[in-house]
Amino acid sequence: MKKWVLSVLLMTLCLSMGSCRKVKAVINKVQEVQVEENQIDVKHFELEDKTSYKDLTATMTFTVDYPLGNSKAAVALRQWLYKTAVGEPSAQDITDGKQLFDILFGSFKEVNSPDMMKKCKEEEGIDGGEWFYNYRFKKEWENSNVVSFTYSADAFQVGNATSSAWIKDLTISKSDGRILGWEMFKSKTEVKSAIDDELTKKYGDDADLYDQGIPMPEAPLFLADGIRFDYGDYSIVDPHVYEDTGEYPYCLLPYSQYKHLLTAEACKLLGLEEDAAANTPVATGNTPDDNFFKNLVRAWDDMHTNRNFDDHDNSPYAETVKFYGMTIDKYDAAQRKMQLLNNSSDFLQSSVNIRVTRISDNKVRCDFDKHTTLKGQSKTYPSYLVFANQGDDTWLIVEESDQVTDKNLARKKK
What we know:
Blueprint: H1 3-15, E1 28-32, E2 42-52, E3 57-67, H2 72-86, H3 97-104, H4 108-111, H5 114-124, E4 130-142, E5 146-157, E6 163-173, H6 188-203, E7 221-222, E8 226-230, H7 241-245, E9 250-254, H8 255-258, H9 264-270, H10 290-306, E10 317-323, E11 326-329, H11 330-342, E12 348-360, E13 363-374, E14 377-389, E15 395-402, H12 403-413
Parallel strand pairs: 3-4, 10-15
Antiparallel strand pairs: 1-2, 2-3, 4-5, 5-6, 7-8, 8-9, 10-11, 12-13, 13-14, 14-15
């Protein structure tokens, strides 16, 4: 089936799914979240059913975190979902999630009718096989100022290389129901450059990214740790990421590295402090401050300069470490370091621009620019270390690598 025909089917499906006699909707209220007054409460609905037509067997899943309440953000979210799904604004604010379900399923029979399948077969030569349709409206993150949702849908035919998947991102201000977009950045050109860089790192220089003319996504998605930019399955990467992995093509710009791209208003809404020591939301618990981890990186530098990786009692590595793409033990890692240093009498190393990202209370990543000197030649590598708490407030390296190595390994694997 040609891409445009499938896209029409998918779009029609997702824009106007409704009830019909052949589709028995099973809608279950799974949870109702009520935590704080400023939180967006949701009802979680699920539909999972199977229906047979003359020319088609279709399995469909439908999950929605339906916004509740009369706040400006909740109303804006419901109206956005309706307009995006149905294709036109709602005449009224639909507060009942089940009512929207009924509206959306109204044309499911039409989209998957025998006539439509017959037309596809005649025009595209593809028999109606077993199809899967998935539809999601998911709450991703919120703080006291904003709330973020993703709206996504995909369809594919079992046993046939025919699929389509797309995703839309939405972050709304709670105070006025305003959708946050590109005005949250100082320069859209700089954002595009950062997106291009991160996508190339993630998927490799040889990936089909529109010949590196990477298109801008429709909107940013603001999350706890950074800004995510999502693409549909056919948007940028070949082979198709979603079809192979179930993951939409995306890149994440961590606040620790890219906060400078945001306006002052964006930083305030996202809860990012203006001082340089708070580039990212801090994990809860008794995790040491950023300077502690920066000093660990500097101590790691000193071990190179002083050539003392053979001191196993003071090894910086955990029992098992992911070492430039390989999983090895700490003794092997130290041996590899000493072999390098013993063959390079003039080797020097120092790291600058250290950025700390808190993965969890017990795991922290440090990104930095590693400067090395060897045989009179100086080089710089964008590198990183991941430290993990060993349970006694001892933090050891569990991963060491650099972006050049990661990119080469990804290219080789691909």
